[in-house]
Amino acid sequence: MISGEEVLKHNTRESCWVIVHGQVYDVTTFLDDHPGGADVVLRHAGKDVSEIYEPLHPKGIIKETLNDGEVNDALLRSYVDEYIGADQILGPVDLRSNITKALPESAGKDPASSQEGPLPLSLCMNLDDIEMSACRIMSRRAVTFITSAADSLASLTQNRKDWSKLTFRPRVLRDVTRADMTCHVLGKKSRLPFFIAPMGMAKIANDEGELALVRGAVANDIPYCVSGYSSIRHADLIACQKEVGGGGILWYQLYVSKSGCETTRQMVRSARDLGYEALFITVDVPVVGKREEDERYKAELDYAAGHFSQSSSGEGAPVLRGMHSYTLSWSDLSYIREEWGPSSGPVVLKGIQSAEDAKMAADLGFDGIYLSNHGGRQLDYAPSSMKTLLEIRRFCPEILDKVQVFVDGGVRRGTDIVKALCLGATAVGVGRPFNYGIALNGVEGCNKVVQLLSDEIQTTMRLLGATELGQLGPEMVNSTILENRLPQYLSFFKSSSSPKL
Ligand SMILES: Cc1cc2nc3c(=O)[nH]c(=O)nc-3n(C[C@H](O)[C@H](O)[C@H](O)COP(=O)(O)O)c2cc1C
User: Fold this and answer.
1) CA 408 – ligand 1 centroid, Å
2) Same domain for 332 and 452?
3) Active site residues
4) Which residues form the FMN hydroxy acid dehydrogenase domain (predicted)?
């Protein structure tokens, strides 16, 4: 048994201990690999961090990891095994001793303390109402994490603006009693042509986290692409899907970790064995973008605590934010596909932002491409998914017959979704609004987001003169403004060599 006083002495970068649920861990060597950065751990070094740790990490992630043989969620184990060895569990803390507790932090005033309460869901008329209402009740930490985007926010704002630059060309005098929104995605039928985009750490928005999103996906029979950084164990999400009736479609989103090929293989294997129906490999995060509001928030906490960054990287060291593989290349995708296996379901590349890469993915036989700039969180001034889609239509339209195309970023209206479908998208991803929905009222909030979008899609279809999605086509949209802004010259005109997988 280790006393609380003893643990408190280990509060530096050289020796950093923490207590989680009664166990003392030496996390010194893990500091630089902590996904949230070393500073957040160092701020609480020597203390009992259970209350802060709990909402952000899947239950039992450390304990089960170290409990050999009893782990059934290798997706988590592979990650933690990599960083926390058995010798880093130092033993139970003496509960009679003086234990210093780290309390959940908040920099500045939480929106939750504002006088204005949330709007009841029944008074939310669109996704902007849902966002405004959720931001009134979420902690500042949650608002910061969910809303933040890269640098000058150019990609973030352009995402929304580009949807508004497309206008419709409706046909009238058609019988539109019926408006069938069924769509076929990656070999499955979905009731609606949109899905829940992958977002890590959903527990930051609501205690149920990803479970609320799984329940919502099942209840509405739509796909949910679960983030590899889920704050609920993947095994529990799959179990939940079965418990609530087995509808919906769950896809697994993979981040390739910098810790190497074996970790990645293990994650892919576990996702496959758990029964995820498709693998989405995120390829736009060799490093994490410079999300200044996130960084400001952390800096303010440090400043308030009189704690200054103990970052180990010296001056002049390369800035490689995050813990993803920054060497990931086209040729690495072959081992990932091989591990997933040919009969385990489709494989899609998420984060494609140019016609060249779209063509490369199609030529290499991927089942889908997911055009996305990560909700403006990665490269500032990256193209919106709509610009990339139009670029593909102009420079390599033949690939639209070979791969399914997913788009996301700034989608807040049914009209945005219909525009994307008219121009060749198979289905459309919606991110932040689902986090805002569950923040307001768990699965009910998720259902409300689905209901608002589905109502808007149906109405748009009817007003366009379409009774099923197959009738939507490019002639129903005027995209001239965006087409005039497309690049003139693409690199694949000069290169004949594509990598082979
Ligand atoms: C809070 C948050 C967490 C995210 N986490 C992931 C993730 O774990 N994996 C991933 O591929 N994309 C992630 N994304 C990007 C989304 O999948 C999606 O591309 C983006 O949110 C779409 O833009 P929208 O939020 O404007 O709808 C995240 C986005 C947000 C806002």
Assistant:
1) 9
2) yes
3) 227, 255, 282, 350, 374
4) 119-482
Q: Is the CB of 492 under 6 A from ligand 1?
A: no
Is 333 a pocket residue for ligand 1 (Cβ < 6 Å)? Answer: no
Taking the alpha carbons at both ends of the chain, their separation in whole angstroms is 53
How high is the ipTM of this complex? Answer: 1.00
- State the residue for tokens 């293990």: 266
CA 61, chain centre distance (Å): 20
Residue 14 in domain: yes
Task: Tell me the per-residue pLDDT of 189-219, one tens digit each, with 9 for 90 and over.
Answer: 999 999 999 999 999 999 999 999 999 999 9
Highest mean pLDDT pick, 47-56, 442-451, 487-496: 442-451
Q: Residue 165 maps to which CATH number?
A: 3.20.20.70
Note whether 74 and 146 are same-domain residues: no
Cβ atoms of 405 and 372 closer than 8 Å? no
**Looking at 92, 118, 153, which one is the last position of a domain?**
92
Atom of ligand 1 nearest to the CA of 374: 19
Q: Is residue 105 part of a domain?
A: no
Express each pLDDT in 35-88 by its tens digit.
778 888 999 999 999 888 877 777 666 655 444 434 445 565 555 555 667 788
Shared domain check, 483 and 396: yes
pLDDT tens for residues 294-322? 999 999 998 888 876 655 455 566 788 88
Are 256 and 264 in contact by the 8 Å Cβ rule? The answer is: yes
**Structure-block tokens of residue 298:** 């952390």
231 shares its domain with 303: yes
CATH value at residue 24 = 3.10.120.10
Alpha helices in 305-365 (DSSP H): 333-340, 355-363
Pair (148, 24) in one structural domain: no
227 within ligand 1 shell (Cβ under 6 A): yes
Of 36, 67, 92, the residue at which a domain comes to its end is 92
